[in-house]
Amino acid sequence: MATIRKKLVIVGDGACGKTCLLIVFSKDQFPEVYVPTVFENYVADIEVDGKQVELALWDTAGQEDYDRLRPLSYPDTDVILMNDPNTLTELRKMKQEPVKSEEGRTMAEKINAFSYLECSAKSKEGVREVFETATRAALQVKKKKKGKCKLL
């Protein structure tokens, strides 16, 4: 059993893939049916750099109706994953290309994110790397009275 516990909160608009990402990581299965999330919690153990870590995975509701409740998930968070829900859809509507990786990295630097990663919950490509990187970020943060979390 892991002695290190970290809290990870995932945020993004409704139907952007937050729940799919968490379920693929924690249960290794892709949910084929969309069911809007209100608030869900998952737990997954991960080993990173020789350390066993128990991740408390907090899935937030993306719909605007829950904007006032979402901040209740944030206290004591070690790392936040941000999903950009509309990038591909909106780019297709405007007949534009997806954001280039370099542009994503530039934005990550601009907002002082720990890292910029791309993944696919459907194909499972890069999913484990996202959570390994998030765990590394969480392990680097030392809790203070006014604790900070890492943004990924």
From TrEMBL:
Keyword set for this entry? GTP-binding, Nucleotide-binding
Has the keyword GTP-binding been applied to this entry? yes
Q: Which Gene3D superfamilies match?
A: P-loop containing nucleotide triphosphate hydrolases (3.40.50.300)
Gene Ontology terms: biological process: ameboidal-type cell migration; cellular process involved in reproduction in multicellular organism; developmental process involved in reproduction; hemocyte migration; melanization defense response; small GTPase-mediated signal transduction
Q: Name one GO molecular function term.
A: GTPase activity
Pfam families, alphabetically?
Ras (PF00071)
What's the domain of life for this entry?
A: Eukaryota
| UniProt-listed InterPro entries | P-loop_NTPase, Small_GTP-bd, Small_GTPase, Small_GTPase_Rho
Name the UniProt record assigns to this protein = Uncharacterized protein
Specify the species: Ladona fulva
